[in-house]
Write a structure and sequence with these properties.
alpha/beta
């Protein structure tokens, strides 16, 4: 089953979520929501590789502002490979000039803070502590990380190592005034029960979840998905502080064709800590700028 078929099939279930009235939830939904732009929408490259349609990372704040965004996310691999203090200062200057604020720094992919190997786990934690420092210098509210993506050991064993890594990195992020957000990023992390247990046992005020709309691959070869992404987000909602609002294709009315945005944000009314909706457009049928703006407009429409 491909991503589009999976999401359309899931859309048939749990219909009651779609009509959930906000007045029952004890808070005004989305009153603190800020829409940020995620860099992958405009820059689909990493560590200096060529992206003919991309932009220079230091032009990113100004471009984001020109598209109507007041907040931007950052991604570690869009920065120069040998990041220097002057590069961070330059980015901060560009943000100030453009009038945008930094939201979330996205990290991962170069080490697992829940690795079963103690030495590799320690190396990953040390590496991502460095990126916590970068996030603080950029003025970010949170840093995202991933763990549990690769299933090589049992559920409880992976949880044990993830707890160790998330606690240590979460404590460090807290000491810098930052939230640490763990994303459902395939593998164990796309199992809501595993993520909930992780959050409950870590039990740190500054540790939460970045909910991704489409990362629900539980296993590979063959691909096995968590059966209902809307239900998955609903279960994670008490811990969600930011979301990755994925988008790819739109119809004539401006609706995303593979994700029911109205339904997804109705579910997110049950996420009282939600602060950032990060636009992540990855389609190719329209321009990247168009896709980013259409996603932003759709979020604004469904959250009114």
């Amino acid at each position: 089953m491909d991503r589009q078929s999976f999401l359309k099939t899931a859309a048939l279930g749990t219909l009651a979520i779609n009509t959930l009235p906000s007045f029952r939830l004890g808070h005004k939904p989305f009153e603190k929501l800020k829409i940020s732009l995620t860099p992958w929408s405009l820059m689909r490259t990493s560590y200096g590789t060529n992206d003919p349609l991309g932009i220079d990372v230091f032009d990113y704040p100004a471009v984001a502002k020109s598209l109507g965004f007041d907040f931007i996310d950052h991604e570690m691999f869009h920065f120069p490979k040998n990041l220097k203090e002057k590069d961070i200062d330059r980015m901060n200057q560009r943000c100030a000039e453009a009038g945008v604020q930094s939201a979330v720094l996205l990290t991962g992919g170069v080490g697992d803070i829940g690795d079963a190997d103690a030495q590799k786990r320690k190396q990953a934690i040390t590496l991502f502590k460095y990126w916590v420092d970068v996030a603080q210098k950029l003025g970010c509210k949170a840093m995202r990380n991933v763990c549990g993506e690769y299933i090589t050991i049992s559920h409880p064993e992976k949880l044990t190592y993830a707890l160790e890594g998330v606690k240590e990195l979460g404590d460090y992020a807290g000491s810098k005034g930052l939230d640490l957000l763990i994303e459902n990023h395939n593998g164990y992390s796309s199992n809501p029960e595993w993520m909930i247990e992780l959050m409950e046992k870590v039990n740190l005020k500054n540790v939460g979840i970045l909910g991704d709309f489409t990362n629900w691959t539980l296993e590979r070869n063959p691909d096995t998905f968590y059966p209902d992404p809307y239900r998955g987000i609903e279960l994670l909602s008490p811990y969600i502080r930011a979301v990755s609002a994925k988008s790819e294709q739109f119809d004539r009315e401006g609706q995303e064709t593979t994700i029911d945005y109205q339904r997804m944000f109705n579910v997110l009314q049950k996420a009282p800590q939600l602060e950032f909706a990060g636009v992540e457009f990855f389609g190719n049928e329209i321009t990247r700028n168009q896709g980013a703006v259409m996603t932003k407009n759709l979020i604004e429409k469904v959250t009114k």
